[in-house]
TrEMBL record:
Swiss-Prot/TrEMBL keywords: Membrane, Transmembrane, Transmembrane helix
Classification via SUPFAM superfamilies: Pectin lyase-like
Signal peptide: none
Protein name, entry field: Right handed beta helix domain-containing protein
Membrane listed as a keyword: yes
Transmembrane stretches, start-end: 15-35
Keyword Chaperone attributed: no
Organism name: marine sediment metagenome
Database matches in InterPro entries: Pectin_lyas_fold (IPR012334), Pectin_lyase_fold/virulence (IPR011050)
């Protein structure tokens, strides 16, 4: 009886250890830790809001000027539109879309950015009359990183 009890106890202990490892790994994988790729040493850098350049005033664009905006695969530089401030797309010099009003009647989105890793800011934009489907949105981001949305309707 002693040997069987010891084997059972060892088996239970092994199962508990494996479960603890699986839980620990799943917790670690759930957190999205972002490292600054530019410095190469893996240290996390905190963004200081005072270091960000203020966007230049671009005027105000109404729904008669802009039907929709679609950025695909970092093609920011290919869009020669006055309401998109094409910059380097880096952390310190992001692209900016601001002060735009879009009537997206008949479209599933007003602004769509997909497959982009450039840094960008969308601020003070108003999008209305978008589609009512479950995948429709005023501002839609698909497979996109490094974007900041501020004060949009």
């Amino acid at each position: 009886m002693g040997k069987a009890y010891m084997k059972s106890k060892a088996k239970k202990k092994s199962i508990v250890i494996v479960l603890e490892i699986v839980i620990a790994l799943s917790i670690i994988c759930t957190f999205n830790i972002v490292y600054d790729k530019g410095n190469g040493d893996g240290r996390l850098e905190i963004q200081n809001k005072t270091d960000i350049k203020k966007p230049s005033l671009s005027g105000s664009w109404d729904e008669n000027d802009v039907a929709y905006i679609h950025i695909f695969a970092d093609n920011w530089s290919a869009t020669e539109l006055p309401w998109i401030q094409n910059r380097t797309g880096s952390w310190s010099d992001p692209h900016v879309i601001e002060n735009v009003t879009i009537d997206s009647t008949g479209r599933p989105y007003g602004i769509l950015i997909e497959n982009s890793n450039d840094y960008f800011i969308i601020q003070n934009c108003k999008v209305y009359n978008t589609g009512s489907g479950s995948f429709d949105a005023g501002i839609k981001l698909e497979n996109t990183n490094n974007g900041t949305l501020t004060n949009n309707n």
